[in-house]
Amino acid sequence: MPLEVRVLEKRIKNWKKFSGAVAIYPLDAGFSEMYISYTPILLDSKTEFSAICDIFSPEDMYERYRPLYQRLKKLECQLCWSGLLRSKPKFEVSSSLRNLKRHMPDLSLDNTLIEALSSNADLMKDLKKIKPSLDVSLWSAKVKAGASLSTEDLINVLTDLPRKPLDVIADFYENPDRITWIARLTSMVPPDFSCDRRINTIFDTLDIVCRTAKRVSVSLMREVV
How many domains does the chain have? Predict the structure, then answer.
Protein backbone atom coordinates (compact mmCIF):
# COMPACT_ATOMS: atom_id res chain seq x y z
CA MET A 1 0.00 0.00 0.00
CA PRO A 2 1.48 3.40 -1.00
CA LEU A 3 2.43 5.70 1.86
CA GLU A 4 -0.13 8.36 0.88
CA VAL A 5 -2.94 5.79 0.76
CA ARG A 6 -2.04 4.43 4.19
CA VAL A 7 -2.02 7.91 5.70
CA LEU A 8 -5.25 9.00 3.99
CA GLU A 9 -7.03 5.66 4.28
CA LYS A 10 -9.95 7.03 6.34
CA ARG A 11 -10.43 9.97 3.94
CA ILE A 12 -10.66 8.04 0.66
CA LYS A 13 -13.18 5.60 -0.82
CA ASN A 14 -10.96 4.03 -3.46
CA TRP A 15 -7.47 4.15 -4.94
CA LYS A 16 -5.49 2.68 -7.82
CA LYS A 17 -1.76 2.23 -8.32
CA PHE A 18 0.02 2.55 -11.65
CA SER A 19 3.62 2.64 -12.77
CA GLY A 20 5.07 5.66 -10.97
CA ALA A 21 1.68 7.08 -9.93
CA VAL A 22 -1.30 6.63 -7.61
CA ALA A 23 -4.92 7.70 -8.14
CA ILE A 24 -6.97 8.58 -5.05
CA TYR A 25 -10.74 9.14 -4.88
CA PRO A 26 -11.77 11.01 -1.69
CA LEU A 27 -14.85 10.47 0.46
CA ASP A 28 -15.48 14.18 0.93
CA ALA A 29 -13.33 16.90 -0.62
CA GLY A 30 -13.42 19.86 -2.97
CA PHE A 31 -11.89 17.64 -5.66
CA SER A 32 -13.23 14.42 -7.19
CA GLU A 33 -9.87 12.74 -7.65
CA MET A 34 -6.19 13.23 -6.91
CA TYR A 35 -3.22 11.90 -8.85
CA ILE A 36 0.11 11.43 -7.12
CA SER A 37 3.35 11.08 -9.07
CA TYR A 38 7.00 10.97 -8.09
CA THR A 39 10.12 12.57 -9.53
CA PRO A 40 13.51 11.25 -8.35
CA ILE A 41 15.99 13.86 -7.06
CA LEU A 42 19.40 12.42 -6.24
CA LEU A 43 18.76 10.10 -3.26
CA ASP A 44 15.27 11.45 -2.65
CA SER A 45 12.18 12.36 -4.68
CA LYS A 46 9.61 15.11 -4.88
CA THR A 47 5.94 14.29 -4.96
CA GLU A 48 3.33 16.02 -7.12
CA PHE A 49 -0.31 15.96 -6.03
CA SER A 50 -2.77 16.95 -8.79
CA ALA A 51 -6.33 17.54 -7.58
CA ILE A 52 -9.14 17.62 -10.17
CA CYS A 53 -12.18 19.84 -9.70
CA ASP A 54 -14.81 19.68 -12.45
CA ILE A 55 -17.14 22.63 -12.92
CA PHE A 56 -18.46 21.21 -16.18
CA SER A 57 -17.14 17.87 -17.42
CA PRO A 58 -17.02 17.17 -21.18
CA GLU A 59 -20.39 15.41 -20.85
CA ASP A 60 -21.98 18.48 -19.24
CA MET A 61 -20.27 21.16 -21.33
CA TYR A 62 -22.34 23.32 -23.67
CA GLU A 63 -21.61 26.26 -25.95
CA ARG A 64 -23.26 28.68 -23.54
CA TYR A 65 -20.57 27.92 -20.93
CA ARG A 66 -17.71 29.07 -23.18
CA PRO A 67 -17.78 32.67 -21.79
CA LEU A 68 -17.48 31.21 -18.29
CA TYR A 69 -14.32 29.30 -19.23
CA GLN A 70 -12.86 32.45 -20.78
CA ARG A 71 -13.72 34.43 -17.65
CA LEU A 72 -12.19 31.84 -15.33
CA LYS A 73 -9.04 31.46 -17.44
CA LYS A 74 -8.04 34.98 -16.38
CA LEU A 75 -7.95 33.82 -12.74
CA GLU A 76 -5.15 31.26 -12.97
CA CYS A 77 -2.54 31.72 -10.28
CA GLN A 78 0.45 30.22 -8.53
CA LEU A 79 2.06 30.36 -5.12
CA CYS A 80 5.28 32.25 -4.56
CA TRP A 81 7.33 33.00 -1.47
CA SER A 82 8.56 36.41 -0.34
CA GLY A 83 11.28 37.17 2.19
CA LEU A 84 14.51 35.37 2.99
CA LEU A 85 14.64 34.46 6.68
CA ARG A 86 10.90 34.08 7.28
CA SER A 87 9.39 33.60 3.86
CA LYS A 88 5.68 34.23 3.47
CA PRO A 89 3.27 32.59 1.01
CA LYS A 90 1.76 34.85 -1.61
CA PHE A 91 -0.45 34.12 -4.61
CA GLU A 92 0.27 35.80 -7.93
CA VAL A 93 -0.77 35.51 -11.58
CA SER A 94 0.63 32.26 -12.94
CA SER A 95 3.64 32.38 -15.24
CA SER A 96 1.74 30.27 -17.80
CA LEU A 97 -1.07 32.84 -17.90
CA ARG A 98 1.43 35.66 -18.37
CA ASN A 99 2.95 33.71 -21.26
CA LEU A 100 -0.49 33.23 -22.78
CA LYS A 101 -1.18 36.96 -22.48
CA ARG A 102 1.93 37.67 -24.54
CA HIS A 103 0.50 35.32 -27.15
CA MET A 104 -3.00 36.86 -26.79
CA PRO A 105 -2.44 40.57 -25.93
CA ASP A 106 -6.18 41.25 -25.51
CA LEU A 107 -6.42 38.70 -22.69
CA SER A 108 -6.99 40.52 -19.40
CA LEU A 109 -5.95 39.30 -15.94
CA ASP A 110 -8.18 39.02 -12.88
CA ASN A 111 -7.22 38.75 -9.19
CA THR A 112 -10.54 37.38 -7.94
CA LEU A 113 -9.22 33.89 -7.19
CA ILE A 114 -5.94 35.26 -5.85
CA GLU A 115 -7.83 37.42 -3.37
CA ALA A 116 -10.14 34.57 -2.35
CA LEU A 117 -7.22 32.22 -1.67
CA SER A 118 -5.10 34.85 0.06
CA SER A 119 -7.91 35.74 2.45
CA ASN A 120 -8.30 32.17 3.70
CA ALA A 121 -6.44 32.05 7.01
CA ASP A 122 -6.50 28.25 7.29
CA LEU A 123 -5.00 27.90 3.83
CA MET A 124 -2.22 30.36 4.48
CA LYS A 125 -1.44 28.66 7.79
CA ASP A 126 -1.19 25.25 6.11
CA LEU A 127 1.03 26.62 3.34
CA LYS A 128 3.48 27.94 5.93
CA LYS A 129 3.68 24.45 7.43
CA ILE A 130 4.51 22.55 4.25
CA LYS A 131 6.06 25.27 2.02
CA PRO A 132 5.11 23.65 -1.30
CA SER A 133 5.01 24.89 -4.84
CA LEU A 134 1.40 25.26 -6.00
CA ASP A 135 -0.28 26.10 -9.29
CA VAL A 136 -4.02 26.53 -9.91
CA SER A 137 -5.02 26.38 -13.56
CA LEU A 138 -7.78 25.28 -15.92
CA TRP A 139 -7.71 22.26 -18.18
CA SER A 140 -6.36 23.71 -21.41
CA ALA A 141 -6.25 21.18 -24.25
CA LYS A 142 -8.56 18.75 -26.00
CA VAL A 143 -7.84 15.05 -25.80
CA LYS A 144 -9.41 11.97 -27.38
CA ALA A 145 -12.54 13.61 -28.72
CA GLY A 146 -15.56 11.40 -28.18
CA ALA A 147 -13.71 8.87 -26.04
CA SER A 148 -13.40 8.45 -22.30
CA LEU A 149 -9.92 8.52 -20.80
CA SER A 150 -8.57 5.63 -18.79
CA THR A 151 -6.93 6.55 -15.50
CA GLU A 152 -3.48 5.89 -16.96
CA ASP A 153 -4.30 8.08 -19.97
CA LEU A 154 -5.48 10.84 -17.65
CA ILE A 155 -2.27 10.71 -15.63
CA ASN A 156 -0.28 11.07 -18.86
CA VAL A 157 -2.47 13.97 -19.99
CA LEU A 158 -2.03 15.78 -16.67
CA THR A 159 1.73 15.41 -17.01
CA ASP A 160 1.64 16.74 -20.57
CA LEU A 161 -0.79 19.68 -20.15
CA PRO A 162 1.74 22.22 -18.77
CA ARG A 163 3.93 21.62 -21.81
CA LYS A 164 1.24 22.29 -24.42
CA PRO A 165 2.18 24.95 -27.03
CA LEU A 166 0.56 28.35 -26.60
CA ASP A 167 -1.38 28.05 -29.85
CA VAL A 168 -3.00 24.84 -28.55
CA ILE A 169 -3.97 26.59 -25.30
CA ALA A 170 -5.28 29.58 -27.26
CA ASP A 171 -7.40 27.29 -29.46
CA PHE A 172 -8.89 25.66 -26.37
CA TYR A 173 -9.61 29.10 -24.92
CA GLU A 174 -11.74 29.86 -27.96
CA ASN A 175 -13.50 26.48 -27.99
CA PRO A 176 -13.27 24.74 -24.61
CA ASP A 177 -14.88 21.33 -24.20
CA ARG A 178 -14.79 21.28 -20.39
CA ILE A 179 -14.29 23.55 -17.39
CA THR A 180 -12.01 21.78 -14.95
CA TRP A 181 -9.67 23.23 -12.34
CA ILE A 182 -6.37 21.47 -11.69
CA ALA A 183 -4.54 22.28 -8.47
CA ARG A 184 -0.95 20.99 -8.60
CA LEU A 185 1.03 20.89 -5.38
CA THR A 186 4.63 19.71 -5.30
CA SER A 187 6.46 18.94 -2.08
CA MET A 188 9.11 16.73 -0.57
CA VAL A 189 7.51 14.06 1.61
CA PRO A 190 10.31 12.40 3.59
CA PRO A 191 9.19 9.15 5.32
CA ASP A 192 9.88 10.41 8.84
CA PHE A 193 7.81 11.05 11.98
CA SER A 194 6.17 14.12 10.39
CA CYS A 195 5.04 12.55 7.11
CA ASP A 196 1.52 11.60 8.26
CA ARG A 197 0.80 15.14 9.37
CA ARG A 198 2.39 16.55 6.22
CA ILE A 199 0.34 14.39 3.85
CA ASN A 200 -2.89 15.27 5.67
CA THR A 201 -1.99 18.95 5.48
CA ILE A 202 -1.39 18.61 1.74
CA PHE A 203 -4.83 16.99 1.38
CA ASP A 204 -6.38 19.83 3.43
CA THR A 205 -4.60 22.44 1.33
CA LEU A 206 -5.87 21.05 -1.96
CA ASP A 207 -9.34 20.64 -0.48
CA ILE A 208 -9.46 24.35 0.44
CA VAL A 209 -8.01 25.45 -2.92
CA CYS A 210 -10.52 23.42 -4.92
CA ARG A 211 -13.51 24.43 -2.80
CA THR A 212 -12.46 28.06 -3.22
CA ALA A 213 -12.03 27.71 -6.99
CA LYS A 214 -15.45 26.06 -7.23
CA ARG A 215 -17.12 28.76 -5.11
CA VAL A 216 -15.58 31.53 -7.21
CA SER A 217 -16.60 29.71 -10.41
CA VAL A 218 -20.22 29.38 -9.31
CA SER A 219 -20.33 33.03 -8.29
CA LEU A 220 -18.97 34.20 -11.64
CA MET A 221 -21.26 31.84 -13.52
CA ARG A 222 -24.23 33.90 -12.33
CA GLU A 223 -22.68 36.94 -13.99
CA VAL A 224 -21.56 35.32 -17.23
CA VAL A 225 -23.99 32.54 -18.19
Answer: 1
